Amino acid sequence: MSTRHPRLRRKLAAAIGVLASMSLLAACATSDATPGAAGGGEPQAGGDITFLIDSLGDTWIPNNGSISSYQGQVWRQLTDKLVYVDEEGTVSPWVAESWEQNDDATEYTLNLRDGVTFSDGTPVDADAVVANLDIWAKGDPERGINRIGLFPSANYETATAVDPSTVKVTFTQPTLGFIPTLGYHGSILLSPETIALPAEGQADLSNAIGSGAFTVESWQEGDNVVLTKRDDYSWGPEALEHTGPAYLDSITYKIVAEQSLRTASVQSSQADVGYNASPQELEALSSEGFQVATPRYLGFAYGFAVDTRVEPFGETAVRQAFQHGIDRQEILDTVYTDDWQAAESFIQSNVPEATDHAAAFAYDPEESERLLDEAGWVAGADGVRAKDGKRLEVTLHPTPYLATSQPVDELIAQQLTRIGFDVTLEAFDVITYGERVTNKEGIAVEEPTRSFIDIGTVAGVLTSVNGGEDWFGVGESDTTLNDFATGISTASDSEARAQLADELQAYVLEQGYYVPVTQIVQRIYVQQPGLQGVTYDGVAFANYATAWLS
């Protein structure tokens, strides 16, 4: 690890100090916090910020951790992407200054921006981009490196450096989603030197050589990461107007697991950003003058992916009863604020191809009871239904990637109990959740928190076709779903693909494969009034290359 600069040592010491006493912090928050109105004016260079975060995940291997809600915050500052995608899904140039595609969307040409370099001074040229595309699409299982989830790997054929500033990419099938997916948070540009390292080397964050506006100054596993600005950076996305070096000198990411302590630290001016505050605190924090940001990402709505291999969810009636047994308005009224919205489908409504299918899973406990009655599930003396000697049981695992998941699941447990389910909750921290819940056999319902940039990549989770993630446990047995997955991932016409997306949404919800709850706001930021110019991309990550302290 490198030695910290004196100013960073002081900043980090202040961040570590927030752990000393919850009661002291609370006292400071109530007596010393006197935030003023958020300032404006011209950006000012200089200054260091501390970002308190609940976790930094379990690995720094880029392909394995860059899509995490936690590590992704750091990778956003260290790396660039070929294109920039904003919160509405609009794609604009970044390291790729332009691109062309053939008529059937099987071949793309990327024209790279001149003068872009990695932090070690080597160029971000065509050879480097080819190395990145290959590792995103294929991973390297022998080295323990995953491919990037939701990258269009199934159709990917090859990438070739035509000349130092031109890359040609070919696919075996039409792949309309290729260019937008280059703005996905897994599609981060790293030096070929970093990519070539074994997994153990990539897991050492000090070996990360990116082309972003910041570099790694130091890091300590399970505790903190310190980033410092690159003075020679000059190629930020033009969509953000500021394309030059960051105004801030440094960012310290510090793990503080306790949510209330993160918020109190911002209130007492011991930190600049608190991540994942409770929604119930936001109105009060805003009224005190703090900045609150709740960007919605492009991706899947918050809810449950149902594994049909796990009983009793092999029965369509049980899945549909589960859907209709959830009172989403009660959840919004109890847990959230007006910034949150009910789900309308299993994808977010800001995805361009999203359509409203809320009626398919509307709260209707009478319908839930009718479905279960007709399927032979009979209520016992304790109110729990049973069939053929087996109780109607389900275990919910609140996702640690969403601050509100546990209180939401507690409400859902009460709601499902009223229609005859026996509901158990098991909560784990981030690392244990990954070990025991994520993509593990025997988990009946899982709560994905997954963003995506382009609707075509949704095909990668629906079934096991072409190595898909098979969220619903159907393998290739549901031929209708297979056809949708193939059609939406290989469409060459945007209008035809949008129609397929509408039909796909209707089918998934009618089958009860997914149980939407709310539109997801996974990343909640509480910030000091003086922290200006923060921007948020299509996956709701904060960008501090544009930020300054007023």
TrEMBL record:
Residues 91-441 form the Solute-binding protein family domain. Pfam families: SBP_bac_5. Keywords: Signal, Transport. Residues 1-26 form the signal peptide. InterPro entries: Peptide/Ni-bd, SBP_5, SBP_5_dom. One of its GO terms (cellular component) is periplasmic space. GO terms for biological process: peptide transport. GO terms for molecular function: peptide transmembrane transporter activity. CDD domains: PBP2_NikA_DppA_OppA_like_15. The keyword Iron-sulfur does not apply. Belongs to the bacterial solute-binding protein 5 family. This is ABC transporter substrate-binding protein. The lineage of its organism: Bacteria, Bacillati, Actinomycetota, Actinomycetes, Micrococcales.
